[in-house]
């Protein structure tokens, strides 16, 4: 049995020690990491398949393709634009998982302050399958409030993102 890869967590964002944590995963037959990656790593595609992302900008230039240490901002889950920074960017390569993560912050009043790490892991599995995992660890009162919500908007919103990735990759597979 093969061991599956895991998200790399900076200590500050370790799940279980933050105010909210969500994890979503799908495994899809007939797709590979290379089929999925372009739709995740290039923000120009996000609004085509994920209705919960908007106002994507690159305040210091670059983009729409994400890259290590790239600053960007975007709106999601009704929050004003969050200042984001790519902290891990490992493009697809044979024999290793592709990884993408970013921090996103809202520096406002203590009641509105939000600090998250959103991580992605894409991994080819045997039998022509791909594993798509996304997890987010959140700090701040808005995160604590989201953790109590039922249904959980973060869990459902991230599932929509996974499903959208799957559908756009299947639709455009060469």
UniProtKB/TrEMBL annotation:
InterPro entries: START-like_dom_sf
Source taxon at top rank: Eukaryota
Protein name: Polyketide cyclase
Organism: Parasitella parasitica
Lineage of the species this protein comes from: Eukaryota, Fungi, Fungi incertae sedis, Mucoromycota, Mucoromycotina
